[in-house]
Amino acid sequence: MPDVPTNIPTPDPSLKNSNQPQKIYLKDYTPPVFSVNHIDLNIELFDGADKKHATVTANLDMTRNTAGDLVLFGRELQLESITLNGKTLSESDYQLDQESLTIVNAPDNCQITTVVTIVPQTNTSLEGLYQAGEGADKMFCTQCEPEGFRKITFYPDRPDVLATFTTRIEADKTYPTLLANGNLIDQGELAGDRHFAVWQDPTKKPSYLFACVMADLDVLTDQYVTSEGREVLLELYAKHENIEQCHVGMQALKDSMKWDEDNYGRAYDLDRYMIVAVSQFNMGAMENKGLNIFNTACVLSSPETTTDRRNFNVKAVIAHEYFHNWTGNRITCRDWFQLCLKEGFTVFRDQSFSESLHSPAVQRIDDVATLRAAQFPEDASPLAHPPRPDHFVEINNFYTATVYEKGAEIVRMIANTLGKDKFRQGTDEYFRRYDGQAVTVEDLLSALSVADPSIETFIDWYTQPGTPTLSGYFTVENNRLALSLSQQTRQVAGYPAPKALPIPVKMAIFNRATGELAKEDLVLLKDDSQSFEFDGLFAKADFDPVVSLLRDFSAPVQLNFNYSNDDLAFLMQYETNGFNRWQAAQLLVNRILLQNADTDAYITALKASLPALSETDPMLAARLLDMPSERELGSAIQTDYDPSQVRARHQAVKKAVAVELKDIWQSAYAKLPISAYEDTAEAMGVRAWRNVVLDMALLAGVSDAKHWAITQYQQASCMTERLGALNAAVAHGLPQKAEWLADFYQRFHHDALVMDLWFGVQANDSQASVADIFALTSHQDFDINTPNRVRAVLGGLLAQPTKIWTQQGVEQYLSMMQDLDKRNPLLASRLIQGLSNWNALVADKKSMVKQALILSQANMSSKNVKETLQSMLNNL
Ligand code: B3K
Ligand code: ZN
After folding, report:
1. Quick one: where's region Disordered (predicted)?
2. Angle between helix 565-574 and 600-616 (nearest 10)
3. 175, 133 in Cβ contact below 8 A?
4. What is the Å distance from ligand 1's center to 682 Cα?
5. Separation CA 487–CA 469 (nearest Å)
6. pLDDT in tens, 174-189
7. Helix or strand run (H / E) with residue 129
8. Distance from the CA of 280 to the center of ligand 2, in angstroms?
9. Which residue positions in the chain have pLDDT lower than 50?
């Protein structure tokens, strides 16, 4: 029998049924009573047949800052011993509960040594130190942000306690790779086929940036010389069979390092930068100091196995985590309410980096599409919260689209308002002033406003929930164009009456008569409503103005401008801002889908735009045909949402567009022969356009289209092409569907990330029933402990509102959540958030879902899930 310890504190049953989880408030913040100067950590991992646990010894050098008790957080730790300044403490010397260890009247200078036992082998929460994978794939790694370090050892685990770390790791030699943050200062062999490594991190860091890895991995190495002349060793660790899939990530890392030097004057500060690929990980990646840990889906890439979207995402996530080294690690958050300080800013930085890799317009389209698909619905749902929340029960529930994506939009608005030079002046000031500190959103704004004090007014964006609606119209009098703009934000339950926010509106005025651009400007709406006047436009006799608002989506608002359908069709053709061409198409197609507007203007504009655009910018041509998904349409409806009606309209409009543009598909595909794979923006554009054309041609009944699909599947040069053909076969029920699914499985069943695609295609199949989709969870390759796999299947179900919003759909989904709530609360809570717009449903569905949610509450035990369910049911 393995010696799994039995006396680890288990959750108090009285808490399990408590419906009032403990709320923590921003207003209650107090500075830490003690700081930690240094921690020596020793982690001994035992993973033999008879011993499966880790012994963690921590030696903390602490100094008092203020009066109060010495509190160390610890969760699911078995305390073996504790000494204070050389004296062994007995149980009466401290208070121990499930969350913390408290020493009253501790001296001002404390050397505390704790020894604890933990069991990474049974830790399915993927927080703290855990085993990822089974058998030959097994490895051990950590995830500490936000509060995972307390699952490794007792510690003042909060982001404003910064310390230097020395970490010794010991394990069997079956795990030859022993990594931790910083520089390797010692390593050696031990008796019993064991070995150790000692790592020292010279920079002070909060405990959430701690990481270690014990595994058997291959490594790809490279080097980067920083602008300051530092030679940095770059290492990308992955399973042996995956190491060849690390080259894209390595190049992206070097590109990111250069980009941060060029654009923000930030160079890397250690001699070594390591990235480790892990197959079981709750999110995309983690920016641990000098030792990033990545979900394999966000770092591995090869043309044969990775779609263009994922390949691009690998580069973006590598950049994001690297950029955190300055925005997050060297300058960190004072408390977790400030999460968007690091996340919003860093997302803005990675989006800007991505713009440099391909067309800025397409990058902006993709970022806004994500914002509209994820953040706008969240802001309209019972889970709405400000980018900087003022209370929470479980901080893990706040790694949301609002914190990340809306947080990035706020920094973007500030950057656009300041202009390039003043923004750089502000960011330089931020890095100069706060390097090495744990700070707040107010500190960021204070630095960014050195060149323009008005920037401080953007604080209201951080503290107010809800998506503002920007409304407007224009009038012409005495040859002057007056643009009237107003704003309105819904009152969210539990928050004060909304204030007017500073809204930068990038705009242009065109002449309808000639299609020419007459004026470009950026106006700032500060009040509830304001008017802006433009003259000098009417010198030309034929001047007929078309105003184009919110270019490049200059603010995260719902636009409600009184465009006519013809105005939007005009802008689809003549806007010189690529993003606004797309936005005009989106506004028009949303009117068609949601308000039953007719399709004439939209189809005429597509016919006029696509042939030329597909030659010059095929990626933008592909995006111009974007139609909001059924799920997205559903979340735009506030009451009496009937998923079947939305679906019927969605299908009918898509079909009408496909049929009307049949000639375009016919001639376009012929010009798109499959050629050798290239990782360039141009080649990606062609592949995206080809897949859209194939899908539309099959829908329109183009006679050659089935033949195109067969050739594309068989001759695919890369995964984007093969999956495009497979998706088409599934979506259009081609006779090859079953054969190709089997073939795809045969080709790729050894590659977990491709198997995620295989599960995803079937879960997204509109022909599949709810039972068919859940049957995928009984497949031999399904694994509930692998978040990527769970998301592949359940993501498909959530993408099909006609299926998830049925009794069977909701009940089976929630029953899986009950299981996940015990294994991996973080994942369970995130997936339950996928049901958050239940309250907009038509009456019978709404009461059915409400009942199911209420019933499920009693069966959930994690704080994460309890808080989510409570918010979903109460914040209406
Ligand atoms: N900072 C991490 C996210 C941690 C999530 C914890 N539940 C990754 C990132 O944003 O870069
Ligand atoms: Zn981040």
Report:
1. 1-20
2. 10
3. no
4. 32
5. 6
6. 999 999 999 999 999 9
7. strand 128-132
8. 18
9. 1-18
What the block records as the tokens of 713 is 């599947």
**Quick one: how many helices (H) and strands (E) in the chain?**
30, 31
Q: How far is CA 359 from its chain centroid?
A: 21
The angle that helices 643-660 and 578-595 make with each other, rounded to 10 degrees, is: 120
CB-based contact 597:571 (threshold 8 Å): no
Cα–Cα dist 447/445, whole Å:
5
DSSP states of 85-99 as a string? TTEEPPGGGSEE-SS
Phi-psi region of 398 (alpha: psi -120 to 50; beta: other; left: phi over 0): alpha
Q: Where are the alpha helices (DSSP H) in 498-564?
A: none
The residue whose two tokens read 């923590």 is 24
- Measured CA to CA, the distance from residue 816 to residue 773 in angstroms comes to 13
Is any ligand 1 atom within 6 A of the Cβ of residue 321? yes
Distance (Å, whole) CA 687 – CA 684: 5
Q: Which ligand 1 atom minimizes the distance to the CA of 321?
A: 11
Residue partners of 609: CB distance under 8 A and separation at least 6: 572, 573, 581, 621, 624
Q: Is the peptide bond before 31 cis (omega within 30 degrees of 0)?
A: no
Q: Cis link prior to 146 (omega < 30° from 0)?
A: yes
As beta bridge partners, residue 117 has 55, 78
Q: Whose CA is nearest to atom 3 of ligand 1?
A: 286
Task: Spell out the alpha helix ranges (H) of 518-577.
Answer: 565-574
Evaluate: CB of 405 within 6 angstroms of ligand 1.
no
- Start-end of H helices in 576-642: 578-595, 600-616, 618-624, 630-635
- CA-closest candidate to residue 80, choices 123, 45, 118: 118
User: Could you confirm whether 321 is annotated as catalytic?
Assistant: yes
From residue 695, how far is each of 72, 657, 660 by CA, in Å? 58, 12, 14
At 564, the amino acid letter reads S
CB 237 within 8 A of CB 160: no
Cα–Cα distance for residue pair 426/455, rounded to 1 Å? 10
> Which of 293, 264, 290, 258 is CA-nearest to residue 279?
293
Cα distance between residue 282 and residue 335, in whole Å:
22
Question: DSSP string covering 184-237, please?
Answer: EEEEEEETTTEEEEEEEEEEEE-GGG--EEEE--EEEEEEEE-TT--EEEEEEE
Which residue, 116, 143, 121, 113, is CA-closest to 46?
121
Q: Give the active site residue among 170, 321, 343, 630.
A: 321
3-state secondary structure of 269: coil
Closest CA relative to residue 248, chosen from 302, 307, 316: 302
- Which DSSP string corresponds to 688-739? HHHHHHHHHHHHHT-TTHHHHHHHHHHH-SSHHHHHHHHHHHHHTT-TTHHH
Torsional sign, CA 11, 12, 16, 20: negative
Please say whether the beta carbons of 563 and 587 come within 8 A.
Answer: yes
pLDDT digits (tens, 9 = 90+) for 723-751: 999 999 999 999 999 999 999 999 999 99
Q: What is the pTM of this model?
A: 0.97
170 within ligand 1 shell (Cβ under 6 A): no
Residue 663, C-beta contacts closer than 8 angstroms, at least 6 positions apart: none
The closest of 56, 330, 343 to 206, measured between CA atoms, is 330
Q: How many residues does the chain have?
A: 876
The helix or strand, by DSSP H or E, that contains position 874, with its residue range, turns out to be helix 863-874
**pLDDT at residue 18, as a whole number:** 46
SS3 annotation, 240-254: HHHHHHHHHHHHHHH
- The residue behind tokens 């918010």 is 871
Q: Which residue has the tokens 């198997």?
A: 755
- CA 464, CA 461: separation in Å to the nearest integer? 6
Q: Which residues of 322-345 are buried (b: 16+ CB within 10 A; e: fewer)?
A: bbbbbbbbbbbbbbbbbbbbbbbb
Residues with CB under 5 A from ligand 2 (ion): 343, 346
